[in-house]
Every structure is written in C-alpha cells, then in structure tokens.
Amino acid sequence: MGNKQTIFTAQQLDSYQDCTYFTRKEILRLFDRYRDLAPQLVPLDYTCQPDVKLPYELIGSMPELKDNPFRQRIAEVFSDDGEGNMTLDDFLDMFSVLSEMAPRDLKAYYAFKIYDFNNDDFLCKSDLEKTLNKLTRNELTEDEVRMVCEKVIDESDLDNDGRLSLEDFQTMIVRAPDFLSTFHIRI
Amino acid sequence: MPRKKDTDDINIEMDADESESDDGGNNKRTNNRRQGAGRGGARGRGRGKKPASEDEDEDDEDEAPKGRRGANKKKPVKKRGGRNAKDDDDSEDEAPKKGRKGAANKKKGGKAQDSDDDDSDAGKGKKGKRGGKKGGKDEEDSKGKKGDAKGKDKGKDKDNDNDKKKKKKKDDSSDSDSNTNSEEEESMSEGEMARLMEEVEEKKKLIATIRNKPWRMKRRLVHLKEAQEFVDKFEGALGKGKGRKWYAYKVMMKKKWIKFSRDFENFRTACIPWERKIKEVESHFGSSVASYFIFLRWMYGMNLVLFGFTFGLVVIPEVLMGLPYGSIPRKTVPRVDQHSAQDYSVLMDFQGYCKYSIMFYGYYNNQRTIGLLKFRLPLSYLMVGIGTFGYSLMVVIRTMAKNADVGGGDGDEGEFTFAWKMFTSWDYLIGNSETADNKYASITTSFKESIVDEQENQKDENIHLRRFLRVLANLMIVCSLGGSGYLIYFVVKRSQEFANRDDLSWYEKNELELIMSLLGLVCPPLFETIAELEDYHPRIALKWQLGRIFALFLGNLYTFLFALFDEVNNKLEQEGSIRNASLWAMKEYYANYTLFLNDSSLTPPPMPPADVIRGPCWETAVGIEFVKLTVSDIQVSYLTILIGDFARAVIVRFLNYCWCWDLEAGFPSYGEFDISGNVLGLVFNQGMIWMGAFYAPGLVGINVLRLLSSMYYQCWAVMATNVPHERVFKASKSNNFYMGLLLLILFLSLLPVVYTIMTLPPSFDCGPFSGKPKMFDVIMETIDLDLPAFLGTLFSYAANPGLIIPAVLLMVLAIYYLNSVSEAYQNANMELKKKMQMARDEEKNRRNNTDSTNQVMKDLEDLLPRGSLMAPPEPEKPPEPESRLTKTKPGSAGKGVNLQKDVALASPNPNARGPVNRSPGPRGAGPGQGPGRGQGPGPGRGRGRGPPPR
C-alpha cells in the first residue's frame, strides 16, 4: 500500500469518514481487508466508483465472521441486494455499525434486522427458534426451544401481539448490560 | 424486497417515493397537477392553478438550455400531487447554473397565481426575493439528485422537512413575478435569513449525525454531498453588512477547525497502541479476557501521563538544573557505605548508589529556586505529588461516568433473563473455532440451567447443611485473612530488628517481600477451594472470590503500612537525636571558628560531603520499601506466568506422549487466564505506585516499564499457553467494576500519603522540604514571598475554620439532597415499572378471556377492529399495478380515475405523507399537516392493520 492516495480521492475519504465511525487509516485498512478477500476482483482504484461485489462465500470466510453463527444474516442485512453479496460501501457499513463507536440505538436496529430471519419486521416465534438453534447448535430439545421462545416473548413483548417489534426489541436490548460489549467486531 | 423493508421502519416516508420513483414521469406529473388543480384552494399554498403556472414554468425553462434538460428529467420526479411544493422545488432544481434568478422566476411563475391568500403584503418585493432565494436553495439542495432517481428518493425525506417552509415562502412570493430578477440577497429580510440559517444549521446537524442513520452507504453519501453543497453555498450568504464578513470568517475558521480536529482524531487513534494484539486475544478468548488487556492499556495510558508529570516537572529539572551528584551530603553516598555502594546485591536492595539517586525523595535539594529559570523545585515537587492524586481521581471518575453512561443497563436481573440470553450471549468478537465451540457449549448449558431454574425455581434440599457449610467457609476465610495479616505484621517487626544487624542472609533481607508475594500467591487458590464448600452460582462465587482476595490484599497492604509507620516513628526519634548532635557540632564549630579567626562570616565546615553525619531520612526509606515491593511483585507475577502457565503448558504438551493418562484433557491440562486475579494484581500494583510515588519519583517510571512489558509478555503468554475458558461467564459491567476497585484503592492509598504530608515533619537534612516544620509550608512560603500580599490574606481567610466548616456542611447537605433526589427518582421509576407490568398483565388477561366484564370496553372492542379494518381493504397491492398502468399511458386519463388511483396508491404506505395530502378526506384538514407529518397517522394505522404484506 505504497500510494494510498490513489485508491480514494481525498474527498471520498472525507465522506467515508463522515458516514462511518472510522478514521482514515481504518478505512484504508478495511479496504485492504476487503481487497484481500479477492485481489483479482477488486481494483486498486476506487476514485471512479467501480461496481464490484464480493460474493457471500468470500465475505463469510473472513476470520471475523467465520465462526459467527449469524454470519449469513449479517451479510444479508448489510448487503444491498439482500443476498449477502457486498460492495465496498456495504462492507464499510457493516463494520461501522459493528464498531465500538456506533451508538446503542443503531446497533440495536441492526441487531433486530439480523435476528429477523424472515424479514417481516417482527421477531416472531420462528425467528426466535432459528436464533436459538443457531446459538446452541440444535442441542436443545423441541420442548426446551419452545419454552425458551415463549419465555422470551413473554418477557419482552410489550404490546402483546405475540411477536417482538422493533420497539419491544429496543426496550429490551437497551437495558442489557453486555449488548454493547458483545455486539461488536474489532477490525 | 428485503431492501425496501430495511428502510421503511425508520424512514417511512422514503419508501413511498422509492416505489414510485421510476414510474412514468410525465403523465404522472400532469396528473398530479390536475389533481392539484382540482383540489384547488384547499391545498392552500399548493398550486391552485397549477396547470397555468406550470406552463409558465416551462417557458422559463426554455430560456435556459440547462433548465430545459432538467425540466425533462425532473418530470419523473413529480409524481406526487400531494407534494406540490416538492414539485416546484424540483422544477427549480433544474436550472442549476442559470443561477438563482431563473429558478426564482420559475418558482414565482408557479406561485404567482396560487397565492391569493397572501396576507403579508408588506415588503412583498423582499419576499419575492426570498422566494427566489429559496428556489435557488432548493436547486442546490437537489443538485445531487438531478438526473438520478435514487438520489431524489433520498433527497426527499430531507426535503420534506423543508417543504412547509418552502410553501410558506411561496405564498409570500405572490406578485413578485415581475421584479424578482432585479434584487438579490442584499435585501434579505431578517426572517428569511433566520430561516436560511436554520436550514443551514439543520444540514450541518445532518452532516454531523449522518453516520447514526441506519441508511445504506450510498444513500448516506448522496445526502452528505447534498448537505455539504448546500452548506457551502449558503453559509457564506448569511449575515449581512459588516456581519457578513465576520460570519464568513467564522465559518471559514470553523471549517478549518473541523478539518484540524479530524486530522487530530486520525492521529490520536493512530497512536492508540496494541489494537491488533488485543483484537487477536479477543478473537481467541472472547470479550472478558480482552477486557483485562483493555484495562491494562488504559492503566498504561494513565501512568504515562503521571510519568510525564513527574519526570517533566520534578526529575528532569533536578537533573538539568540542580546541583550535581556529590556536591552536597544528601547527594553523596556516605563514606561508610562507599566501599560496597556498587555491589550488585546492594544495588538490588536499592541501597548504595540507588539510594542516593534521583529515584528517591532524599536526593532532592531544598533550594527554593534552581537554575536560570528560577524553577521552584520544592513547590513543584509537592504540587506534582498532589497532582498525581488529583489527576488519577479525575480520570478514574470520568471513565467511570462514561462507562456508566454507555453501559446504560440498569438491568434488573430476572426481568429479561431469557431475552438477554438469547440476544446478547453470542460474543461477536469471537473469531476462533475452539472458543466458538466453548461458547456454544456454555450458551447451551446456561440455557439449560435457566430452564431448570425456571421449572423448579427453588431446590433447597438441605438448607441447614448448606448454611453450616457457608458459615464454616467464611470462618475459615476470616481466619486465613487474620493469619496473613498477623504474619505480615510479624515479619515487618522482625525486619526492623534485622535492620540493625549486618550479618543477614538473603532470605532475611527479603523476607517481607517474599512473604507478601507468597501470600498473594497461595491465598487466592485457597479461597477458591474453600469457596467450593459454599456452592454458589459461579457468578456470585466470582464476586465473593474477588471480594475476599481484595480484602486479603488490602489487609496485607495496610498491615504493611502500619508496620511502616512504626518504623517511621522510630526513625523520627533517631533523627531527632542526630539532628541535635549535628546542630551542636555545628555550633561548636562556628563558635570556635569565630573565636579563632575573628571572622563572623559563616562558611560551612570544610568537610567532604561524604563524611557529614546525616539522619536516617525516613522518606527515602519508605520510598525504598515501596520500590522493593513493586519490583518483587513484578518478579513474582512474571515467574508465576512462566512457571504456572508456560512450564505447565510445555509439560502438558510434550509429556503427553509418554504419560499414563491424557494430560491435556485430564488433571493438569492447560491453564485458563485468571482474569480476576490479574485485574486485582494490577489494581493493587497501581495502589502501591500511588502511595510510593511521592517518596520515590522513579517508581512511576518503573511502573510504566512494568506495564509495557507485561502487555507484551501477557499477550504472548495468554496466546501461547492458555486455553479459552470453559465456562465463559461475562463479568458484566466489568469495566466499571474494575474502575470501582481502582477508585477504592486510590482513595485508600491517598489516605496515608496525605496523612504523612500533613502531619509528619520532613527530615531535616534530605529532600526538597528539609528545614521546614511541615511539608506543605512550602506553599505558604510561596504565597508569602511570590504572590501579592492581598492573596496571602485571602488564603488565610479561606483557610479559616470558620469558613471551612460551613463549606463542608454545605457539601454534606448537597450530597444529602442529591441523594434523596436520586432516591425519589428511583422510586418513581419503580412505580412506573410496576404500572407497566400491571398494564401488561391486564392486557394479557383481557386477551385470554375474551369475555370482558366491562361492557363499555366490550363495545369499544367491537368498534375498534372495524375502525382499524377500514383501511386495509383498499390498501393492499392490487391498486398499484393498475395505477401504474394508467400512468404509463400517455396523456392524462381523466381526473377521476387518477384521483382514485392515487388514493389507492397511498394506502399501502399509510406512513408516507402522501395520502394525507392527496386523499379527498384529509385534504380539508389543511395541507399544512401534510408534509413531514406523515408519521403521525402512520404508526397508529399501521399497527391496526399489521404490516403491509410485501
């Protein structure tokens, strides 16, 4: 990375800094990471905004994500096409939200998206079951899963519609002591 | 359409736009117009006479070639009759370079007719201008969008905010059609300017907070660009007359400042060390282990600052400007010791040359000012000593406050047990499959545990036995705590005896440090074993464990301190006699001197500084004790890692080939990283630094080195020899827990130091305060000699007990008041929580037995669903394609049809502000409602209907 300046224009870097929680150095580092995933695909010149997308298989194989049970969801939520194929913008977006600096509300919003497997803007039972099964690698019995899901809904469903809306989720998560420290990927 | 869904919770408005942005523009636009016309005055600021005005628009645009192009493009955008204002803006957008005037023209053209209701005719001309201005602005606004529909969508919701404003302006700009072009900004009215300013501020705010918006990057970039351009363009136009220049200057400086601060921020983050290392550890061991390293790094930063103070203000000046080594007695090794002063063993005990070096209190001279700069070293020494505490207190408390702010979680245990477990238990930092496996296992077990807990809730099989065991365990622990305290006291006493003897073995010399380190090594595991008896939940057990170790360390430290005080008192007595003796000798000498030479000028006795009789200098002795303690602590902790972790890992790894059981899985196995022990060690080490730093300025330097090396060493050790925790339980809110410990230690270490500074007399022949009855007299001296007299009197008043006692009283009262206020808040909080819970329960009950007892409620229920069901039938999808169809057809197909369509279109997105404007019903409500207020009706209806099925 001898000549960093040619990857982005100064203006691009500035706007990226305005739009993310990263400093210039981190943005360049992220670009490197992005490029390392597929050096042959990603050009070294982003000044003219090439339309490059990396497939989910590459994104999901990053060491930061590869052990995460929700990696597919993360990629889907942050990708423009909803399939997990990411442009550099999406990539920056993802790590910006997951960075230490991002505020709780933003994180909660995206966490909600991630756990909302069927994209219906509510966490319904099936979403919760999927989440739970991913978390425990299917080691709980059917009954246990059902019970836990019921408990979760019982605890945090404020409007009693049998599923969690974004507000329910936020009120619950905002008070969780370790949400900020765990919903966070260092780059 | 996952993508659309993404955005629509938060920016509900936009997705209406999105859905339509691409449908055939022209017809739609015209349709809208027609509607607008149909709607007539109701829309008010709208375009009563749209068509006509529009024509004019077109004409205007013809004049400007660019405008023309733009006009064509723009048309697609105006699909929404409801947003007439918008349309206007858009049309104006088109003539970018043509300048504001063209735009203004257009706008006015558009507006001229419809603003029959213009009430404020005063200064119409001005307003006209304003309109022009506005137009220009809008144009600026949407420059980014031009041509690309997406940009526009995005721009829209921003614009919405402005819509109202714009509309108003438009009204105003009634008859200014003709004279618009003539005058420009110079005659901007106050109101206009205020508005502009407001808008600029808004944009600025957007720029500052854009990263907090859950938008796609592309959208953010476009918005950002627009906002920036807007601000660039109009910032300079604000202010007038003389003010303008000043304003422009201010703006420029602000920009520079922003740029500078960003660069600085970049620089600062580049300076934060070990990001990578910590990340590596984090991904292997999860956030709990990493929190230790982050804490370590934080400590390093703080100590670096302390180091800077001490060295910059005390050590370096003394080295550069003070008297050199060997010039006066306090800076010279006494002759008796000189033969052995360079021996390794002596130096390792911090005797010999070490004792008479810059590291310790005794070396510093009591000259009031040193060097050319007249640096007041004694004053600076005292200030740095106090400043160390002040700074540390400030930093610790600030960090705690920040953590508390971020941590937010006032998590009542039990309220959200399962939900939290489900949504926050995965540690996104984990990037190592072994750790991930452990994490999965621990999450599973924790779920199972909670399930079991939930099912049984309490399982007290033999509560008496348990109680007995717990009492027993606590008894044993108290005994061992007391024992260790006594042991230390005993050892310190003995070391005082030893101090008078010369024939000491290595063990006898280092007995105290050894014993203390050994206690620190042996007791924690002992406590852990004893704690097995108690059978607490691991998290509670961890707390107990931490508390006990803390008590042990604290007890040891304080015993040590008391013993040290005894020693200091001994030394003080000793010093008294030496002082008398030397004074007497001095007097004798002077008497003889004057007697024999008849010369009353006082020259010091011609004696080499090494031979002067000197006192024991208790401050240096205390300093040496602390330094020794710190060094031995470093040694022990490093050795522990080397033996306890590294050697163990090596043995387990390599002997496993030829051993009769599986060492890796069986008994010794690999070590786990002991978070609590390490944190406590660090905290106590810091406590010793704080206590010792006053008597040994070099101690801070040693500590910095220690932290630096242990960062690398422990990072290596943890990665090389430890395995991830089997049961990962997060010490939640751990950061503040550590900080709390640190604060406690800071306070406890503050006490003895302040006590010595305030009460004990400093040694008469060593240190910066020698010759003064009390250390703090140096401040009095400065006040008397260097500050104007009235300040001195001021201080003497301030130090008057009559003033201090009321001040203290006041503070106590304030604390009491704040405390009670916070309690009241807490109570209110609890009340509210209870109420919420009750409401929820009630609701639940009501749901469960539908036969509500309350007749009124029943009626209401009957009513409600119908009410909320009203909307859905039309809303859903079907209408849309239809409308689209017609839209694409060229030519406007009858107003009526279109109107219908629009209504239908609106309904899938009740949240968008469109429908309010457009649908016949709400129109009456006043268009002012329309823009930006869309959300009002949105959620309510949305809830009733459930989510729009897409």
From TrEMBL, chain A:
Keyword Repeat in annotation: yes
The keyword DNA repair is annotated on this UniProt entry: no
Molecular function via GO: metal ion binding
Keywords, ordered alphabetically: Calcium, Magnesium, Metal-binding, Repeat
Domain EF-hand: 144-179
PANTHER family: CALCIUM AND INTEGRIN BINDING FAMILY MEMBER 2, CALCIUM AND INTEGRIN-BINDING FAMILY MEMBER 3
Protein name in UniProt: EF-hand domain-containing protein
Organism in which the protein naturally occurs: Pagothenia borchgrevinki (Bald rockcod)
From TrEMBL, chain B:
InterPro entries: TMC (IPR038900), TMC_dom (IPR012496)
Annotated Basic and acidic residues bias: 135-164, 836-849, 874-885
TMC domain residues: 617-732
Ranges that cross the membrane: 304-325, 379-397, 471-492, 545-565, 688-708, 737-758, 794-818
Recorded GO CC terms: membrane
Keyword vocabulary terms for this entry: Membrane, Transmembrane, Transmembrane helix
Bias (Acidic residues) ranges: 9-23, 54-63
Pfam families: TMC
Membrane topology qualifier: Multi-pass membrane protein
Subcellular localization: Membrane
Gly residues composition bias: residue spans: 923-941
Top-level taxon of the source organism: Eukaryota
Biased composition (Basic residues): 67-83, 98-110, 125-134
Disordered: region residues: 1-192, 836-950
Family, as annotated: Belongs to the TMC family.
Protein name: Transmembrane channel-like protein
